[in-house]
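Quick one: co-fold with flavin-adenine dinucleotide.
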Amino acid sequence: MNRFRLSLFVALAVLIGAFFAFDLQRFFTLDTLNAQQAAIEAYRGAHPAMAAAIYAVIYVAVTGLSLPGAAVLTLAGGAIFGLFWGTVIVSFASTIGATLAFLAARFLFRDAVKARFGDRLQAIDAGVARDGAFYLFTLRLVPVFPFFVINLVLGLTAMPARTFYWVSQVGMLAGTIVYVNAGTQLAKIESLSGILSPGLLISFALLGLFPLLARWLVDAIKARKVYGRWERPRRFDRNLVVIGAGSAGLVTAYIAAAVKAKVTLIEKHRMGGDCLNTGCVPSKALIRTAKLLSHIRRAPEFGVRQAQAKFHFADAMERVQRVIRTVAPHDSVERYTQLGVEVIEGEAKIVSPWSVEVKTSEGIQTLSTRSIVIAAGARPFVPPIPGLEEVGYLTSDTVWDLRALPKRLVVLGGGPIGCELAQVFVRLGSHVTQFEMLPRLLINEDQEASEAVMGRFREEGIDVRVEHRAKRVMVEAGEKILIAEHQGAEVRIPFDELLIAVGRIANTEGYGLDDLGIPTTKSRTIETNGFLQTIYPNIYACGDVAGPFQFTHTAAHQAWYAAVNALFGTLRKYRADYSAIPWATFTDPEVARVGLNEQEARGRGIPYEVARYDIDDLDRAIADGEAHGFVKVLTVPGKDRILGVTIVGEHAGDLIAEFVLAMKHGIGLNKVLGTIHIYPTLAEANKYAAGVWKRAHAPEKLLGWVERFHAWRRG
Ligand SMILES: Cc1cc2nc3c(=O)[nH]c(=O)nc-3n(C[C@H](O)[C@H](O)[C@H](O)COP(=O)(O)OP(=O)(O)OC[C@H]3O[C@@H](n4cnc5c(N)ncnc54)[C@H](O)[C@@H]3O)c2cc1C
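Sure, here it is.
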């Protein structure tokens, strides 16, 4: 807390403390009010404006400091100023007081809450931005909710003060009138609880329900509008149709079959989608060969004077295909059929919210279904660089068809796919030039992680060109050339093959989204809500086609929500939980992450501390000849709560799992430190990072006393 905040906190605490210490509450009782009514009225008769001002100031102070007494003060307003002026003064004073309490809570505590609950608060803020005014209005209408709690809690959220003010003023008006009106008959009131008769309370509750009912109605009208032009079948042949048999579609269909739904999975190309055929599986298989070659090159480091590899690129690429064939049965038509999924190999098109047309070699059939899950994936994005089509290029879809190692390979793109493949090819023996238009590779990762990867890439011979923008490609004197721009100058790089890896774009065309009017987002993925529903509540999307993540494990994670919501959403819907999403880039060194990194924390204004452990100090890493990299843990200042972790080094993608579990289940660094880790393993790095944190938070004062205690015991 800075000094101004602290002073304000102390001042407010003193005022509130004084109120109770001097028992000022006694002035805000019905008895005092009745006893003083004549004197107060006499004063108001003589000084009406001053009386109104004093009354308003007291009202603002009581509500602003969240003190008890607002109800009696409101009655007093009616008794002293009558229904009209009483209502006007109370309405403004109560709203101003409530807004001051709201602002005080925000100023004093929001940063601390943000630091403690950063990610969760972000989700709450998003909810408040969407529905906050709505719910505040409801809460204000029903005067049974303690207003001071509402003021303080909403102050901790990102609701704009203006919204809070006007919604409060309008929402509290009905309750204010009832109390002020009761105040005009003060003598007849025996207790505060008598003012709100059960009938009146029910009326308020109904009033409070009104916005919710209105919302429900608006949603129903909206749904009617989107469904309006379609004829709903009386019955459905299936509970669920899933479009696309990649990671997202397979898991969706699996879950649906497991809960005994009638589900049809449609795939137009290859079962297993990108991950199996052109993504994770082939890339990791080729990374294995490349790593073996890199180890053979490092043989002398391990005491092997000479080791040579007789390497044939085509053999390595054939092994990749063998690996794919070995894994393929997991995703096969046979397996899914056995699991109870109807699999159709054909091209799907959504023709109405409840029917999907499938084009197969045998013709076209139309399936009727209660719900649809779109899991159509993504494809490599190819930027409009002049000359590309004429010169030719590879993408992550086609690179697996190569059987001759390119002598000179240009990799366009410094993201995870570009980096993994650039390193693979340099290790296999290509001369690799990698272009990235931003200032560093892996721009979304921690700066030090990028630097570690770039450093290693350069050591291994990759010509890394950052801040280079590809302008065009051409053939000159029989040679393929890429022209790029770097700091205003033109750079020419000759090449044999060009691999484009500048990102992936969701497959949103050609299967009916336009006809149904299903919108896409700015990043060109299908627009869904938190439950993964499109504008048609029975049509869902998950995986790469829905974003925002593009990983197999996030596709599978979303698939659970899509399947469960699609099948049981009328009973209960689940909002997709993105609280602890991990990922890894399988370069050497590997880069793995969960939660925030430093640049994101700074960008979002979230305060953090860093505990960093350098893996070059770790026994196992030294023994393995892999003594490099680090574990960097971001925590809430002064607490062991983890905000995010970046690990760079050997098997970082495996090591991060411990922190994913910790973040998901709210386990702090103290508990990680108190857990036995096997010696000697790389996983010990996690414990040592927790140890770094612990040492930085050692209770120095207490240890000073303990030292004295030991000295005393020694006599
Ligand atoms: C080189 C590379 C390496 C990768 N490495 C990793 C990694 O190490 N770890 C990781 O987590 N992720 C990795 N990924 C990402 C991962 O592959 C994807 O995130 C994942 O495959 C997405 O799954 P999906 O089901 O959303 O889409 P996809 O796997 O693309 O599946 C979509 C399927 O839908 C089908 N389809 C589309 N339209 C229709 C239609 N109209 N009718 C019928 N079928 C249709 C397509 O044919 C496709 O099979 C990598 C990707 C690439 C390219």
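If it helps, The radius of gyration is 33 Å.
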